[in-house]
Design brief:
Largest sheet: 7 strands, mixed
Number of helices: 0
Strand content: over 45%
Mean pLDDT: 95
Structural class: mainly beta
Oligomer: single chain
Length: 119
């Protein structure tokens, strides 16, 4: 079992910044990849950014150059630094842990956290 607890977010003005945190606990040694996803009202959940066990990262085109995913292994925490926020970044943001093959479950999700960007 892996537990993911997100924090940060809230209401931010356009052009501003915010940082999301995702603290992982439990069977964290089985985590291959951590990521942030988001879901805006009436839209499907979409990938925002991922960071692999080896440290490589991947970003959605819509956030490249504005968002940065990072991790602190000592704290078992993944961060999403969001700069130059736009109203279209408004969504519920979810943290995801993708597990190694043969894990009891393929992935785990956090409960989600609201980010609202006002114009």
């Amino acid at each position: 079992q892996v537990q993911l607890v997100e924090s940060g977010g809230g209401l931010v003005q356009a052009g501003g910044s915010a940082r999301l945190s995702c603290a992982a606990s439990g069977s964290i040694l089985g985590i291959n990849e951590m990521g942030w996803y988001r879901q805006a009202p009436g839209k499907q959940r979409e990938l925002v950014a991922t960071i692999f066990r080896g440290g490589s990262t991947n970003y959605a085109d819509s956030v490249k150059g504005r968002f940065t995913i990072s991790r602190d292994n000592a704290k078992n925490t993944v961060y999403l630094q969001m700069n130059s926020l736009k109203p279209q970044d408004t969504a519920v943001y979810y943290c995801k842990a993708e597990m190694a093959p043969f894990s009891p479950r393929p992935d785990y999700w956090g409960q989600g956290i609201q980010v609202t960007v006002s114009s």
